Fold each of these.
Amino acid sequence: MSFSNTRPPAGPKELGEAYLPTDRPFRVYVHVPFCLRRCGYCNFNTFTSFSLAPGFDRESYPALLEREMRAARRWQEEHGVPVKAASSVFFGGGTPTALRPSQLSSILQAVRRTWGIDEGAEVSLEANPDTVDPKKLFSLRRAGFTRVSFGVQSWEPRILKILDRTHSPQAAWRAVRGARKAGLECSADLIYGTPSEKRGEWERSVRKTASLGLDHVSCYALSIYPRTKMGRMLERGKIKEESDSAQAMDYEIADSILSRRGYKWYEVSNWAREGKECLHNLGYWRGDDWIGLGPGAHSHFSNLRFWDFSRPGRWSERVLSDDLPWEGEVLGEKEEAEEEIFLGVRLREGLNLKNLEERLGRRVIGELPPFEGLAHIRGGSLVPTRQGRLLNDFLARSLMDRFLD
Amino acid sequence: MTNSEPETFFPQELIRNFSIIAHIDHGKSTLADRILSLTGALSDRQMRDQYLDSMDIERERGITIKSQAVTVNWEKGGKTYALSMIDTPGHVDFNYEVSRALAACEGCVLLVDATQGIEAQTLSNLYLALQNDLAIIPVLNKIDLPGAKTEEVRATLCDLLGVSPEEVMEVSAKTGVGVKELLDAIVEKVPAPSGDPDAPTRALIFDSQYDAYRGIITYIRLVDGRIEAKDRIIQMKSGSSLVPLELGIVDPFMRPVEMLTTGQVGYVITGIKDVRQAQVGDTITCERSLASEPLKGYKAPESMVYAGIFPLETDQFPLLRQSLDKLRLNDASISYTPETSSALGFGFRCGFLGLLHMQIVIERLEREFGLELISTAPNVHYRVEMADGSEVTVTNPTQFPENKVKAVYEPVIEASIITPKEYVGDVMKLCQEHRGKMLGMEYLGPDGVCLRYKMPTGEIIFGFFDQLKSRTKGYATLDYAPAGEEKADLVRVDILIHGELSDALSAICHKDKAYEYGLKMTKKLKKLIPRQQFEIPIQAAIGQRVIARETISPLRKDVLAKCYGGDITRKRKLLEKQREGKKKMKMIGNVAIPQEAFISALSLEDLDDKDIREKLKAHAKK
């Protein structure tokens, strides 16, 4: 088999030596692995206890992150990876707002000290509606955050309960209002495909979201993983997974309502008002460079993909000895081509076929497999239709089958 | 060395060649083991359980497939006799091998389990022995077990063979009781071989095996004359001529000798690797004493069951061909011709003696040659008379003509079923369900009944035996023999996936069973084929007429919603894995079907659910 996953992971030194320079924008992702409690569907790398390992707790975390930042910068300098100011910063989790605004602020300061942040750059954080209040939101704005993304998930109490979320619809509404008052750009995440959710309930949630005047909306299909609370319920037959066709219908409903209300899709799961796309998010799909900080965070530099150790103890041990807590892979030509294809076809700007032709050294335009309503060519790029978004992995595989074998 | 003398010049009158006829589990292998230890052929340390069943598959299934010949010494009345024991298989599929073994003997031991009584299979082998004019020694085994119905079974045997009760011997192969007496009886009752030591050399090849190190090992029975180690030997049918590398007897280890003389059973190693050079049934003669007429040989075995066999990996096709060539060497009953399937690629249409034979051959190919195989559903062969007077023989459903058919003939068998009286009604019902016509019924002793039926071969070879066993609590036994052909109302049912014919799934059925096949196969496939980006109709059709249909709804969503924290690597690996998986699938038109789906669809496992039962009921009313 030619799988790259049979290769052992590469260490930081090996990665650095294999680096090939590019001129992509540079972004920073900060992972906050703390939550007040774990939701029923959650399989993320997050923890509810205060202390995660010796020397690693909620209080010491900002300092640990700064040590990782310094080590990362040293690595860049040692291996000729250009040091640039961040074009965007994103705090994800976990629950970033499980930390105090002052802590979040000092992490942001550390990013600024280490790399600098571009003037007017997008600085986002994810938040739970019930971990913020107007005062906290004001201090976040003051600290330099420009954008907040709330895990609203649903506006229906019944669905929130099934999802095992602690916040109420009222709390979500207050959070959104508070964020707008504080001058933050505001996004909401919704989840569709919750077991037993009726079409009407989903439709109401989308309509409610669209009526709040938000800048940005993300809709994610619920995936139930085996070792989660909901996974066990599924196993015991207490809940039933929604079929792919029900989920597809939910997606179509969301897409119709949101586009009627002035939101345009720009990535399979993301909709925004004109000019309000999340640039950090787009960076993932466009192949930008970014450094991920914190346990389990992923990074990308040109032909390198690497990730922080997920286990807190393993991660902090390295960080506390000023080592890099990373391992990863060096992408070969084949992997880079695969990525260009499957990342590109997720975007409304599409897969740039000219660039692909250049990379592959062969004709692509005019040689495309028949897509039958899944994609069309616009301005030299292959852009998925709504159906092509729903069958996006199929679309990507068809292209790879056609051009990469 | 003086003690090598008897091996080289063994006096003909001191040779006894015999085989043991017994039903599965009646203790034949245990008896053979007992004889080996009693005659000192195997020391206790060398003794392995059931030495003669040397193939793994035989050991696991507890049955003997390949006959082997072992020679042991036995003293009686101050003389040392050479007893050659030729092992025979015990399953109905292998009748052909039984007759081969019997042709090399002058006598046989009819071994019957005293707790079970005589069974249909044993009966038919007994008839074979009688036809060959062999001396028969009836023996009751397992007489020490609490359930032994010794007197009853003895009475049945006396009836069958026309012998007196005293002539029926009793042994316990397990404890060894009575085995000495049996060996003495073999010396007394089995005649010495009758060939002419001074006539031109003629030896019958009754078996051969392929050994990876030594090439072909040919087992022979000297009928006339002798073969010396330095003789140039000639195979009369194939015409090949050479000096053997080694001549020997099996005792039970391969022991080289200088000479094989009239009546002896032994082996020849020629160094030949080309398997077609050593045909079972051929006659060996030698240059020194050339025979002009070959021995009678054997009737070629008739294939009863046909199936396509395909390698899972297409590049294994040449290996499959070589493996079949080698296997055929010691199983002359396999036939094969190349076949191409749109779904399964290149393979062979193979003929087998029966279903068990087919399973064993496939298992041996996989185990001994490291192949991974998929086989189509088995079928029998049909003779089709066309409107224009021409004729077609169909061994593969795809050859079955759709138009201008005048008549179709299917092979039939005559079956003998022996069952306790109380199950006669159930057995008759079962036979009727399988289009059987009753030929007669006889009582065997106070409890047993032998039912004789004429049935289509295709009805009896698939699952019939299991059904018979389950309806008679395991008591009934079955034997059958080909009995020509009969005209029948047969149709070909095709399976279309997304409008494309999947040739591997076509079947020839009786008109009344076509709907059932179509219904079950379409249902099975619906469960087995993964949903794809478009709707997939699955149809069963006779010619242009669709008789059953299922639909696989299209996959509406195939996208990972999110890459957590930018974990692009995981997504890439997932897509790579999916692509690798698809490459291993078989394409029918543009529908990708996992290999496992074909394997399950083609397995003989029956599908049964409420919906099927209701639909079949409604169909029967129409």
Note: Chain A touches chain B through 47 residues (CB under 8 Å).
Amino acid sequence: MTNSKIKHFVVIITLCFSFACKQEKGQLIEIEGKQIPVDSSLSGIDSLTAFIAPYKKRVDEVLDSTLAHAPRSLDLNDGERNTSMGNFLADLIFEETAPLFKTKTGKELDFVIMNHGGVRAILSAGPVTARNAYEIMPFENYISVVELDGTAVRNLVLYLAGARRAHPIAGMQIVMDQDGGLESITIGDSPFDESRSYFVATSDYLVAGGSEIGFFPNVESTTDTGYLLRNAIIDHFRKKDTLTGQVDDRFIMKDQ
Amino acid sequence: MKRRDFLKQTAATSSFVGLGGLGLNSCAHFGQKKITILHTNDVHSHIETFPSTHARWANLGGVARRAALVESIRNENPNTLLFDAGDIFQGTPYFNFYGGELEFKLMSKLKYDAATIGNHDFDNGIGGLLAQVPHASFELLSANYDFTNTEMDGYTKPYKIYSIDGIKIGVYGLGIQLEGLVLKRLCKETQYLNPFEVALDTERQLKEKENCDLVICLSHLGYDYANPNRPSDTQLAERTSYTDLIIGGHTHTFLDKPDVRTNQKGNSVLVNQVGCYGINLGRIDFYFDSQKNASANGVSITV
């Protein structure tokens, strides 16, 4: 596919144009179009490579210094309803956001929801660098905390239960029966109470997407933390020596 | 994708197809003026060549190489303009670290003439874009983003006219709908105006008032969508009257060849897009014959 796309192409067409009033400048008589691949047949201009070098050096130094260690790889498809990478990420967002939110508003964070598609990379076993954080979260998305009423929380859980992919969660447990119905929802240490509101940390992308994206069609209020998701990940890498995550029972469907 | 396949012949056969009964009798470039348009889109902060281990783009791209290519083409034809169709920012840590400074500085070193603004160029907010403007020696063109109530007010132009070797080239920019794509926090009070309406006004201005010989649109609308009412380059080509070339972006479309569409006046419009990440450089050469009555009214399009 790639080869056909970067090849030169040559097709000729003749068409009628009228440029009668422009004859003193000459008429447009011919147009040639082609696409030139920027490949290894070209050698880069040295002065430009030299210009880029200090920028590159700084990026490489920062991104490639080891911040932590992952004894085992964290994956996004090792569980049915929750995954080691998703759990790791949702847990770290809870851990990094709860104190910030408490300081900012005096309120307690209840749980975390992220979208599966927003986690752009897995974590391979071995040394972990800031470059991994850029791979996991390349976008400039911030952590927002939304306030949801009980009905909105129930609808959110139903949305998660009906989703094809395992959206990462933390701070809550969802148990579905063998028919896919909701058996129980536990938030923190208590059963879900539909008469109260909850505070949910998530990506501002999902909040801004509203009903279009599906997670948060109805929010009571939104608190922007101003904390970049990627920075939360990097801060977490710096604090921890060893990074682990596993598939657990936070979101399960009971067997027959 | 309605391609006019019956119009196409490969150059290998060196054959010409007459349309409307008008033959083409001038293939020689004697006494001609030649304008070369070079273009990129969706480079997304890709500064370095992809590593040899890359699954898809191994050993492709890289600004230093693109610079060498552009330089060789400029040496061959000094009457060359270089454009970008937006999404200059976001995609590698260079953007996260330097906010687009390096991208703009390098584009200035490559002597880009103009770029339009893509949705990701708002990723560090209006202020983040403004902060990089001092690093750009090229114009930012957008006819359908109204920045009046933002910090960017006065730092973009709807269009620019280049006079090269007696040929007037009018270039305008169009951006994609921001709602649902760019957070309000980032684009703030930027107003998105209907690109179809703005294009018709702008191209008429360029053709009828400014007497441009060529009209070029730098578009970040996207190549083609199933919904014909969703603004796209193919729709734009068919709804306009004077635009000769649409340089597209946003959809990261790797066209096998530039698309040739028919406009409201029955004339041909070229729509081109060269994928993404600086993997390709687009090149369109326009030949003008200085001899009166030369070659009747035929324009040969070789794509």
Note: Chain A has one domain: 66-253.
Amino acid sequence: MGILSLLLLLPLLGAILIALLPRGRQRLIRGLALVASGATGLLAWSLLGRFQTGTAGLQFAEWVEWNPRLGSAYSVGLDGFSFPMVLLATLLCFIALLASSSIRERVKGYYALMLLLESAMLGVFMAQDWSLFYVFWELTLIPLLFLIGRWGGARRQQAALNFVLYTMGGSVFMLIGLLVAFDATPGHSFAMTDLATAGRLLPEHTQVLIFLGLLVGFGVKMPIFPLHGWLPLAHVEAPSPVSILLSGILLKMGAYGLIRAADMLPAAVMALQGLLAALALFSLIYGGLLAWRQTDLKRMIAYSSVSHMGVVLLGIAALNTAGLTGAMMQMVAHGLVAGSLFLLIGLLYERTHTRDINHYSSLVQTTPRFAFFTVLAFIGAVGMPGTAGFVAELHALIGGFERWGWLMLLLSLGVLISAAYAIRTVGRLFTGPVRSQMREVQDLRPAEMLSAGVLSAGILLLGVFPSSTLNLMGASVAQLSALFAAH
Amino acid sequence: MAESLVWLVPLLPWLAAGWIGIGWLLGRNRGEAGERGTARVASGTALLALLILLVLDVQALWTGAAPGQVVLGQWLASGEYQVLVSFALDGYALLVATLVAFIGLLVIRFSVNYLHREAGFQRFFMILSLFTGAMLLIVLAGNAALAFVGWELAGVSSYLLIAYAYQRPVATINATRAFLSNRIGDAGFMLGLFLCLHLLGTLEWDGLARGAGELGQLSAALVAAGFLLAAFAKSAQVPFAPWIARALEGPTPSSALFYGALMVHAGVYLVIRLEPLLMQSPVLLALLVLVGGLTALYGFLGGLVQTDVKSVLMFSTSAQVGLMFLACGLGWFELAAWHLVLHAAWRAFQFLSAPALMHLMHRPTRPVPAWLRGRRWLHTAALQRFWLDPLANWLLVRPTQALARDVRAFDEHVVNRMVGLPASISLVSSLAQWEQRKQLKGGVLDGDTGDVGRARGAAGHLMEWIASGLQWFEERLVLRGGEQGLQSLIQRLGTYLTEVERLLSHPRYLLLVILATFVVIL
């Protein structure tokens, strides 16, 4: 058994073991979940030493035939696009589990589902066969439906239903797109490489049709402007650890899929480049302005995710090295920033039981450590130089500028808006007159500080030394952008 | 040999100033205990500067020729323009510099007793040293740029000395007024510098003298006009004359040094330096005659009606300096130079003895002469100092203030509002105010949005407006449409299908469907 299969099985194994444990052993269950997730994380991060950054090809690949008549196979592997995502996913899963200590009821089901979700997410990023990809894609829905629907806030049922309906609706289009592509290829295989070589030869209008289907599917997840209706409610109603995973990793699945689709259908992407850029810029500003208007903290972060994913889409739409690098970098950066923000706001909510920004004041006096990490996360969200977001936005800006020139002023405008709500929020939470309700708020405990510290350190490290991450994705990005440079 | 040490002459007093200042910061020379050391450093450096100058003088007398222009290096260069560190050690400069150093030393020595146990003793000596160095640099500088450095420093130190008693509002107002009057002259100086570089490519005094012949009449007049403006301001000639009366606010020794003996002569010194340039331009010579003559009259008439010693001396100084300008205008530059030196020495003595003058007087002061008393209008004008100060107020100060008020109003009411900065009145300066305002608004209740989503300024309002539009769109179409639309669609579809299902369960419809199938197959 290969190392990637082990990576997929470890959380699954943990989930099964937890399911076998008796209901009352809460501490044991939590410990086991942490061990399983931690082991997965260690295994994934140990690959860092063995991953060859110079080559764009698949590494650690495994291939087992699955259904020969359909041409599908169990095929997993890592390249420069998927490896950073796998690393991010294992890290955030571990931190989300660490932050789950407030879940006190139905603990067994919760941890089992979380581990199942981790396994499914890793599968999405590692799958090298479209049918396998689709299976994992749908598999993420099942644990999420229960996680939001059972452990969420007041309107959890509606949020869960909404989320699943939206994603399923998108998946239908994606499936149709994949089937059309499958049908149009002579080899009748679902392998990503086969479909890619065949897809590139298709006539442009076929490519555009297929790509539109995939765009709807991935766009729901990402989310792109008109398809983001599920996001605010789901993010707000989900328990905080699930919010971390939702915005930290689940959103990236959409962007990751879009990059794979671009690899398969270059002519279509070139044809729809303008549309993608327009959607990206609109999402960017739309999300930012709505985030600025929200009084609910989680809702604000949810909309800021729409804005930040707009940068990712813009980078992808630029179709050059700088743009794609920016998109990948922003995915990592946003994973860290949004994870950190949801973590901290979630912890704050546990203590104060309010998410309304108007109820907060002068927290810097009672909770200085909270203030430090939150300010750091918000600075990362704005993309200040020295944080990962800056590297990402700069690359996206350069890539976009090469394509569209001064239109990139809109990107800067988006950054400006994000600064407006970030500074406003920081000011509201931490400064101002002292309120009696805010005097008793407890500061971060050591374990919480560890998780916040890891994410903050990531934000800063990637901002100051971005070359390690850039090397990781460099070869794959170069290969993909060479494809479009030829056009 | 000795001329290579000339840079020490202005630098030594500055070092003394720096020493005193740092000592004060470190708390070494504060209070009465520090007076002795402070005075020693200040007078020691002044003495050393004087000695260097004397060596230079003796050397010049011995060899029978002054060293002339001495270039010690380059200060700055940009493109083809360069400014050198050079000193003009001709007979004229050496003579005046020796006099300056000597008077400076005397004044410092005089002040040791005069300012004993004054609160600002150390500060006074620091500024005095700064001024001595500046004045020496003006005189010794070999080019206009270096002279300007001294010129500015002299202006700054005069500002600091007039405001010596800065606790008194009058002192600070007078200091500001004097400094600003000087700045008008500085603008002229800078214009002169720029035109020199532009037209002649050099700032060296000897280069200026050589190049002056090749300049046209107009160019020479332009270059000289800037410097003349500076000279008029510094020497308190007619339109600028009132500042010197305000300068009396400083301690007596400083008045002696600045306005009696040394600084008022800086303008004359500059004019004599520019002799080759001025000789090219008859218009400017006529201007010199006019301004000098007017100032002499102003000083003479004004001096007649003054009733206190320092004011009389001040007006008489003005008159004498006016006469020097007059002499320059008539082409008698050498006469003006002698006049300058003798007048400086005499006036220094007069000012320093002014505090003791009352003890030496044996008869009452002379009354205003009869011919002046007879002419009412002239007497009034002299008493009012020819209304120069109110005129300046009316012409410059008030319009500037009015403009500033208008611009400020524009800033507060238009720009600040547009940018979204709070006007000064709406600032919350205390917690109590904040609470009060909050109570007025009824506090923040649940569901109240507070001021989230509110913004100030034009850009802020635009953002607010767009954001609220998008919010409406989001609430109405995306969220409600997405949630309820999707669900109601599914529910409606479900009802239809149930209906179809129900109909199909009726045998007759089932039969119909089967029949239809057959028809299609056949």
Note: The mean pLDDT of chain A is 90.
Amino acid sequence: MVLSLKRGCLLGLLCFTIFAFLGAGDEDARFSTVGHKMMCVCGCNQVLLECNHVGCRYSDRMRGELSSALSRAESDDLVLQSFVQEYGPTVLIAPTNAGFNRVAWIMPYLALVLGLTTVVLVVRAWKLRPLRAHAGAVAPVTGVEFERFREQARKETEV
Amino acid sequence: MAQIGSFALLLALALSAYSFVAGLLALLRADGRAERLGETARRAGIAAFGVVFLAAVVLVIAAFQDDFSIAYIFHHSNRDLPAPYKFATLWSGQEGSLLFWSLLLSAYGLVLRLRHKTDSRLFAHASVIIAAVQVFFLLLLNFAAHPFAIMQGSLPEDGNGLNPLLQYPEMVIHPPMLYLGYVGFTVPFAFALSALVMRYPGEKWIHITRRWTMVTWGFLTCGVFLGAHWAYSVLGWGGYWGWDPVENASLLPWLTGTAFLHSVMMQEKRGMLKVWNMWLIFATFMLSIFGTFLTRSGVVSSVHAFAQSSIGTWFVVFLTIIFLVCGVFYVMNREHLRSEHKLESLVSRESSFLFNNLLFLVACFAVLWGTLFPILSEWVQGHKITVGPPFFNRVMIPVALLLLLLTAVGPLLCWRKTSIESLKRNFLWPSLGALAIALFLMVTPVSWGPPFAMRPWREISSLYSLMAIALSALVAFTVISEFIRGGRVISHHTGQNLVASMIRLAHRNTRRYGGYIVHFGVIVIIIGFAGAAFNQDREKEMGFGDKMMIGPYTLVCRSYTQEDKPNYGSEWAIIDVFKGDRQIDTLYPERRFFKASQQMNTRPTIHSTANEDLYLVYEGQNEDSGRPIIKAHLNPLVMWIWVGVWIMIAGTVIALIPNAAAAVRVPAPVRVQAEPVGAGD
């Protein structure tokens, strides 16, 4: 009985340790994920976790703030919001998906869809255009014109 | 020295202005004196090269002589700066780089004016346009960004030195390459506008323009990737492309230039897309100027902040003038640009070029949009926002994958119309091969490491990487099958072996097969990009004998030390690299303190293999223990990017070689007087 209690305690300790480490790993992953959603505000134009400016006044402090905010178990969105309030909207690495910023995301895809539609419509319209009817009989091709057709055929078949 | 330089710049302005005005008058006049006047304009343009060259030489000599009475030399050089960087002072700051731009433009103008006999009328028009662009840059140099401005007050003992980020060997060649690309697009622009102005008959101008564009595009490609390599080797964040506004600025004309190099084939072969091609060249040139504006004006924040100033207004005015001139001549002469043929099928080479152009243009728009959105946001919302790498990656990767698919499909489509049977025949084996590679990458065990063991169902980056590699394989197979198919035909006729036949094939149509080699280079680069999905990094404070594990490598700190050199002091660590039990390398990550500019700078060190790069950065020292903090990045497949660039350059050079005459010419059939075929009754 004593032995099994001891085993149970050891098992409990093992589980606690595993979960504690899992939690630590999870926090590291969150630190990396959230840290890669922000810019360093020193003007280096680099991602917060990639700013390697020697003596940068901001990145170390910001990383410290991020670490403590995550350890307070705040949600990712809440952490990002607090950074926006402290450093301004330029701290976020990409436009949010809200309000006017949504336009930033929509426009390139809209351009792609509109462009594709236009090209398909243009090609179809050209394709459906009827060929010009030949008036009367077709005259035989000779001389310079014949050479021009040969050259055209050569260009189009890349021989 | 400064007086000689200043005088040379003024003289260059006068000569260029004369070349422009006299050239224009000669084109407008129809009497016998017009030719002589035009000749004087041409010679003035040639002389302008000599004078701008003199100004550039004077600036370089001033840098070597440590002439700090010239403000530019004071701000961008110092006594202990190594000789190659003193030479690079010419393009290290704004005034110098504008002078360098002017020098390259006059050099391009020189070549064009010396080759005027190719088509004297067309070249005379182009010469006038180049002279006009030259006048703009010389006005800037003389009145807004003078490189020979004199220091006020007492002469300083030493200069401020060159920006530490620029003190790297590649910086001696990266800006010249980029500028050769940027400036070079002036020549195709000049020919295109000339052809439009004079309603040039035939397609000769487009042949001339295409060759110039290809040369320029080659330089720009080199410049862009040298910049990427510089960022990778110097900036120390472990990446090569950060979607910085100035990086984007170099990509914009590259994208439209690439689109033009494809769509121009439609004009040459089918007489189509004339308006489109004309505006693509105009847009490419305007984007080159816009890129310079973006770099110089400071309208968007960038890591290239060292180049900012207030000359943006000049560029805005110049861009407006260019746009108006192009627009006016287009409206006046648009009838001249009517297509000779129409598209006949959605499944044809023509439509693949259309889609290709669409995707390049969408990519260009997305990059431009993302770069300028912070300014738009400031106007609309009252505050700037950041548009960083996640935005560009998310928008550009799908477009790039579609382009990759077209790269595989396009070359196998026929002009005018392709049958479904032909498509099946050409694509069956390449598609099966690409599918097999994708499956292989998905089922390989995790222990094999990147780029194997891809699990696309787990994360989107892995899915993109898998798609990129599979599509690259598809392109590779189609390119190889094209070479083999063509090679077999020649081999059958000549009896040569397949390899010799393929070489002969490429020589007979250098442009087509050079283009395929460029495509092959692109896919090698794409495979390199795909590796980024599997990047890892670790950071650790490392004392004597401390170890750090990353991927298959074990890093052991052997020592750390300091050194003092005339130009800079440095701290560095000595890191032994082990793979398993075997030591494979010793790396020296370093941090430098540049004395003249009083700036710190890290120097990463890289152990590069085909599989991955081990990239070490000396992050700094722990202030308490004095031990170095080392950051290690493991970046798979990066070497493929640089290899791919070399392949692209080789392909471009091959495409520029004139075609060998075909050994066997198909004889013209004997003409018979055939009965006309009626339309039936």
Note: Chain B touches chain A through 68 residues (CB under 8 Å).
